[in-house]
UniProtKB/TrEMBL annotation:
Highest taxon listed in the record's lineage: Bacteria
Domain AAA: 2-149
One Pfam match: AAA_31
Cited InterPro entries: AAA_dom (IPR025669), DNA_Partitioning_ATPase (IPR050678), P-loop_NTPase (IPR027417)
Protein name: Chromosome partitioning protein ParA
Length: 244
């Protein structure tokens, strides 16, 4: 959509990197080399099959980073220290975090401004959210006061089941206006595309999966533009001080 986007895979499972065709077992450059100070971000950065979409990949070595970070000075802000200059060159930077609330996730939460939470429309998915929200409040208070949750993304939604409808209703009830209007439906093509190392937008652009994520992207851009317009309006209403 004409935006310059950086993806950062901060998950040792490396699902994002694999999805984009990176051989995570081939000892290629990864975010681990940046964290450990062995390489600069520009040496790790990779272009993807989509124009304007860059990637800093992960690999299995990142699993040891949690242990190594424990003894580092400023361990909660290592990512910010090494990547801050690079981040300003992009319209959007998306960081894929591990499914745990360890030091890697903590590093991501100290550098970002907002959080998107993909939430499966299944019962157990709701159970882990309360712990995440507690952590969010602590980090906002102590480390990053600009942090906000700006979107819950209902995903893997199956409209054919009563459970899917019930959980979706519960998500909307609990999070209210934080829930994106776009719902990501279960889609076979979405499940297939990672095995081919190709994003859904290239693998099956006419599929429901691609259409859903395109709609979500448009909603995110519109949300940002609305927030920008609101900020500009507030600034314009501030009166200049008058010297007496």
């Amino acid at each position: 959509m004409g935006k310059k986007v950086l993806l950062i895979d901060l998950d040792p499972q490396s699902n994002l990197s694999i999805h984009l065709g990176i051989n995570v077992h081939g000892k290629e450059s990864s975010i681990y080399q940046i964290i450990s100070g062995k390489k600069k971000p520009r040496d790790v950065l990779k272009k993807t099959a989509i124009k304007g979409l860059d990637l800093i990949p992960s690999d299995i070595d990142l699993a040891s980073a949690e242990i190594e970070l424990v003894n580092m000075v400023g361990r909660e802000t290592i990512i910010k220290f090494y990547l801050e200059k690079l981040l300003s060159k992009y319209d959007y930077v998306l960081i894929d975090c591990p499914p745990s609330l360890g030091l890697l996730t903590l590093n991501a939460l100290t550098v970002v401004r907002e959080i998107f939470i993909p939430l499966q429309t299944e019962f157990f998915a709701l159970q882990g959210v309360s712990k995440l929200l507690q952590t969010f409040e602590v980090i906002k208070k102590r480390l990053n006061n600009t942090l906000s949750i700006t979107g819950i993304i209902p995903c893997m939604y199956d409209s054919r089941t009563k459970l899917g409808h019930a959980v979706l209703d519960k998500i909307k009830e609990y999070f209210d206006d934080k829930v994106f209007g776009t719902i990501i439906r279960k889609n076979v093509k979405l499940s297939e595309s990672p095995s081919h190392g190709i994003p859904i937008a290239l693998y099956a652009p006419e599929s429901n999966g691609a259409r859903d994520y395109e709609a979500l992207s448009k909603e995110i851009i519109a949300q940002e533009e609305k927030m920008f317009d609101t900020t500009v309006e507030k600034i314009s209403q501030v009166k200049e001080p008058v010297l007496q």
